[in-house]
Amino acid sequence: MKKVEISRARKIWWKIGIFLRKLLIYVISVGPIPTHVAFIMDGNRRYAKKMNLGSEAAGHTAGFLSLMAMLIYCCELHVKYVTAYAFSIDNFRRGQDEVQSIMDLIEEKIELLIQEDSIVHRYKVRVHFAGKLQLLSEPVKDAAQRLMASTSDYTTILLTICVAYSSTDEIMHAIQESCEEKRSAIGGCKLVQIVDMEKHMYMETAPDPDILVRTSGVDRLSNFLLWQSSCCYLESIHALWPEICLGHLIWAVIKFQQNYSYLAKKKKLLFR
Predict the structure, then answer these.
(1) Alpha-carbon torsion 202, 83, 262, 235, what sign?
(2) Strands 125-130 and 233-236, how do they pair?
(3) Phi and psi for 209 in degrees, rounded to 5?
(4) What are phi and psi of 264, to 5 degrees?
(5) pTM for the model
(6) How far is CA 75 from CA 22, 124, 162, 168, in A?
(7) What's the 3-state SS for the chain?
(8) 42 in active site
(9) What is the distance between the alpha carbons of residues 203 and 73, in angstroms, rounded to a whole number?
């Protein structure tokens, strides 16, 4: 009897929690809502050590669950684009065993998202992978292609996962592709312009972010979206990535709303 009462109490509190979350999101939606929120997911390994989880893989798994939670909250807020920094090109400099372990983990999580009952299918999330994808292992590349194909018709929100990514490489890639395009063009302007560059960016599928959130209390961009973040609100959170919660996201949106007029004017001046 006691187990039944405990189960009933949990369901009641769960429903209350959902109601309060929807109420909070409704209130915050009165102000301007960001179109694009980007995340630097920092602190998975430190979280594993802090919580004595036994392995770094457990920290990355906890980080994956946090990303899914943030994706749900952004869907409920009607954010149209979410970008997550999952694996930097610089991370390939780590030990071979560690890199292989991370590749295996990325493949495992992608396979979970491919399943029909996953969050991306339930919420109609289109998934896109951005970066120098040829550096990924063949199983990861294959899984990524299958996930992108299976979600290509969804329009609720676009989740861009940056793997084998750095802004330096993205800019160099855009320059090289633009120069090649200009060389092969017959007639017309031969000078590379901003519009040419942006057409060949890895992140050309999404507008510039409105909010860029970094966890673990570090105040740097770590070579992430340097080209795209000139007019966005930067939010540094002291919590490690697996510890991020709805409150952190709501607070970032509130700060974005407080600075909305300034950011809009700055963007207008920059792109006029």
Answers:
(1) negative
(2) unpaired
(3) -65, 150
(4) -65, -45
(5) 0.92
(6) 12, 10, 19, 30
(7) CHHHHHHHHHHHHHHHHHHHHHHHHHHHCCCCCCCEEEEECCCHHHHHHHCCCCCHHHHHHHHHHHHHHHHHHHHHCCCCEEEEEEEEHHHHHCCHHHHHHHHHHHHHHHHHHHCCCCHHHHCCEEEEEECCHHHCCHHHHHHHHHHHHHCCCCCCEEEEEEEEECHHHHHHHHHHHHHHHHHHCCCCCCCCCHHHHHHCCCCCCCCCCCEEEECCCCCCCCCCCCCCCCCCEEEECCCCHHHCCHHHHHHHHHHHHHCHHHHHHHHHHHHC
(8) yes
(9) 22
> Is 160:84 a contact under the CB 8 Å cutoff?
yes
pLDDT tens digits, one per residue of 159-217: 999 999 999 999 999 999 998 888 887 666 678 888 889 999 999 999 999 999 999 99
Q: Nearest to residue 176, comparing CAs of 206, 195, 207, 201?
A: 201
Tokens linked to 160: 């861009």
Listed residue (210, 192, 213) closest to 201, CA to CA: 192
Exactly one of 42, 169, 208, 210 is catalytic; name it.
42
pLDDT in tens, 68-119: 999 999 999 999 999 999 999 998 888 888 788 889 999 999 999 999 899 9
User: Cα 257 to chain center, whole Å?
Assistant: 20
Token duo for residue 149: 């194909």
